[in-house]
Amino acid sequence: MEPHRRTANNGSAPNLNLAGVADSVSHLNGHRPAAMDSGPFHAAAQRILTTVNTVIDGKSDAAKLALTVLLAQGHLLVEDVPGVGKTLLAKTLARTIDCTVNRIQFTPDLLPSDVTGVSIYNQASRLFEFRPGAVFANIVIGDEINRASAKTQSALLECMEEHQVTVDGTSYKLDEPFMVVATQNPIEMEGTYPLPEAQRDRFMARISMGYPDKESEIEMLETHQAVSPLANVSPVVTASEVAAMTTTVQQVYVSQSVKEYTVSVGRATRESALLRLGASPRSMLQLLRAAKATAALDGRDFVLPDDVGDLAEAVLAHRIILDRKAVGAGETPNSVLRGILSRLPVPQAPPGQPSRAAAATGSRNR
Amino acid sequence: MAPVRRTGEGHEAARPEKPAGRAGAGAYPWAMAAAITVAVCGAALSLNGVLRGWNWYWPAMTTVLVVGFTLAALRSVRAQPLLVTAGGFVALVGVLTLTFFRSSSVLWVVPTGATLPDLDRLVRRASETVLAETAPVAPNAGIVMVVCAVLGLAVILVDALAVPLAMPAPSGTGLLALLMVPAMIKPQSAGVWSFVVTVAGYLLILACSQWFAPDGRLQGGTARSPGMVRRAALTGAVALVATLVLPLAIPGFDHGTFPQGSRLNPWSASTGLNPMITLGNSLRTPDGSGRITYATNSAAPLYLRSVTVDNFDGDSWGPDDRTGSRVPLDGRIDPGYPVLADEQVRLVTAIDAGSFTSPYLPVPYAPETIRGLGGQWTWDPATLSIKGTETTTRRQEYLVTSAVPKLSAALLAQSSGPVRGIPDVFARIPGNVPDIVKTTAQTVAGAAGTPYLKAMAIQKYLRSSEFTYSLQSPVQGGYDGNGLSVLADFLEKKSGYCIHYASAMAVMARLEGIPSRIAVGYAPGRLTGATVTVAGQGALPEYEADARDAHAWPELYFQGLGWVPFEPTPSRGVVPDYAAESAAPSVTDSLGNNDGLIPDSAPVPAPSPGATAPAVPGADSNSSGNGVQLMPWLLGTAGVVGLALLAATPHLVRAGTRSRRLRPKRPDQAVPLAWSEIRDLGTDYGVPAEDSETPRAYAARFRTSLLGEPGGMDQDAHEAVAFLTSAFERHRYGRPGGKGSPGIGLTHDTSSHGTGGQDNGGQGIAAGVAAVEMALRSNATLSRRWTAAWLPPSVTRRLGQVLRTPLSAAGRAIGKTARASAGEVQPAAGGRSSSGAADGAHTPGGG
Question: Per the record, which residues fall in region Disordered (chain A) (predicted)?
Fold first, then answer.
């Protein structure tokens, strides 16, 4: 077995980790790294965002959302037309962290074993030896994920949900942090395999880059003239720092009424007449996790209903399916979600009545 | 994850009647029409007593049925709502034509041009009836036509409110309007049965609206909630208790503190075709309406007589007009019987009838000539009553000369000869005179020798202390009015008013063989202090009499002397010299008070003042003196203070709430209470918080729409709002215990602590709220500031919610009952329900 190896160089060469063998410091069920304090947390987050923003002009919201997903231990789906910087965002985020990065260009002939890895017979040791696939990295960039065949796509499924790879009956743990950033082009759908619902559901959030505004575009032309700004990016946080940040995020407090609010958002999508498919319970979990990350990035140790509401579009829009008639009426998933949120009552303690009881239950449940 | 769509419950609550509505589409119009018909027919029941008898009820019911079921038929063929209502009007016109204008119509139901004069005639007849007659009126064609039309319109109104406008609850106002009329006119109000039937019909209307609501429009607030039944029961109990207790506390509107309420009843003031019936109502009027003034040269108190009642048969006595034998009034009026008295007293009286409206002319007895009258008048030779033809006494001024023999007890005592020369009708003993009347007459007057002694015996008996003058006890005892059975009740209960005394004396006199009749008119009244100059007489003192002086007294016939009035009613009128027990001179110089007119020296014991005083409102207020004069001032002041308090209530409530919030009992409550105060401030100044707004979003909206630019004059307010928002967020959504766990310590506060941090506690918060309010006030318009101070929406809105709760709870209770009874229909269609609703659910939410 190859020893556990952490590489700092990223991208071109397949840098493979045998996380399944090594007792990784940060896999899910192990002990957590110590939580990071407010000051260092804020500083680290600020460093990451600043760096990303130097590369991608005028997309601070997308950058912040990407960081949110990273800290919430989710996966990100970037969907937009070609040439707006989807891949650049993913690569920049990966570069700012001192960790392993793999990029997989999805094509129709890509095989599942290319993603997960394959067991090869070693002539010298006369044993089968596991050659890890491209998924063995802290950050995996899946470019044009909808171009791969369904079975290759689904090879990613287990990796994304379980943070582990199973080949020939043997499971191999993946490193922490582990994040898949997939890009997808919604325009050229010919000859593609659109992601099935089940797989879309595994992405914590979907963002659309959108076109930059005028100033940003001019600036982009200026700065990107000679060299790729990516070249100047050097890591600003280590992987262990990121792990500590995720622990901090996990410890953000969620009050009972925020939980109720989150659940009522989900129920409202399921009861909405405009939707054929509402949000799943898993998506509620992910929504709350993302909300915790936002709260932490905002410098709070508790989640507000605002956090949940702000993230609802990014987290839920790609999971819900509009009803036929709603599509005909010109609705989009985002507009439906906005409508639901604008009607949903926010739980607030009635005046004069303390929220002690609810809060006490909330802390007990945690 | 399989999509769980439309979890049955919420959907059921949202539109539960869908399948039932479809299944019952055919029955709905008919059920509703039946309900409306029952309600309106029930309300019409109460008109019995306003209209006499029941003959009018059948045309009325026909009208209601025809209109109601025309509406139902049109609706069942799914006509346009406007068309349905128009059809109702057409049906109403048709059925009225069929009933009342058949002769001038085509095919009995289509009115023609010739119908209009007929209609005009009937409407005029009805308006005459309303103006001149008193309840119960005889059901003539005019009034019945109007009643039918009104009932038909009521059906259309109730239907329009309940069905196309989908407001079944307000449809009750139509029914209430019908019930109001008898409630005001009839002394016994609308009546239990009519009320019960009307209410049952109204409940049926409500129930039909719930059971068959066509598209769930009415199901808004019918979601089940726990404790609903309890709330409904509580609401009902409170309403019931209020209904029972309030009338005890409120004195009512016809007597007591606010007698002005009786002006609402215009019928009691008019004196109608049957003054006998009006008389009780007139006497009970607390204010003097129907005021008559007269000036006379008579030294004795003057009775003004309108009409006489001489036929004592039947349930209800009334004047007999003797239309056939009436004589036009153009010359001298001849009494028609010989008067043998030596000395005749001639009187000249100038009368101004004022607002008194009656076809009968009030004149002193016995009139000889009348001058100055407008319109045509006739007189009855038998009774000398003067009646207008197509004219009334309203605004008439006339001069009457009258002549009475100068009577004395001796003269009357001599008159014992057999009666001749007058119609038999005055002496006829009515059939079925109750035994008590016969025995009383026998006991009281049987032993007396002459007619005069008999009459005096009867008068003495009636004026004795056994009898009490009371306007109220006949009403409560149920024998108000006149008639032989009423008379029997009066003799038994020994309490009543002039009608009873007069009819008792008249009937008993006939039993004893003395011809008698009852004169109806006015007792002498009071001096006004003014004088009226009458040609040839000089200045005469003016008297006034109004409804409170309405009176009835018996006239007995003595051969050779003519009709002689007596006064059996204690405390009313004046006992004439000849009828007084002794020959003591009567006191006639103190006409200011009726009580004073009774001769003190009369051996007849007067009723105790305590019993009679409350019955005579005029006397009551006079005797109480200055103590009573203070009352209006006290009441007025109390009223003004009460009104001011009432007007200031929202302000006071708001101020109380604020001071309570800014001085919390527990320090950890300071922040949420201050936040509530900020929300209420926002509500007061026009930016209420919405349910779907988070504290942060509301604070942002608050700051942008109510405060000026940050950094400007409102900087303090901005800081206070920001601080309160984050503090409230931490309190509401943060870790219990406040300060955040030490391990994480993400206590990075986004707000700047401008107005004092949490350390300052309540002080800083109060100062912050004050700063916010000052900023709001300086930014708001004048009207907004005024509203926020005196009618703060945060208070009025809450009040509205409180007031709405019982109503919506009642609505939900009705809905629940309806659903329970419609339960059999539901399961059958239940399978369809979810898919059908999923289809239907997309339609409304498009935007």
Answer: 343-366
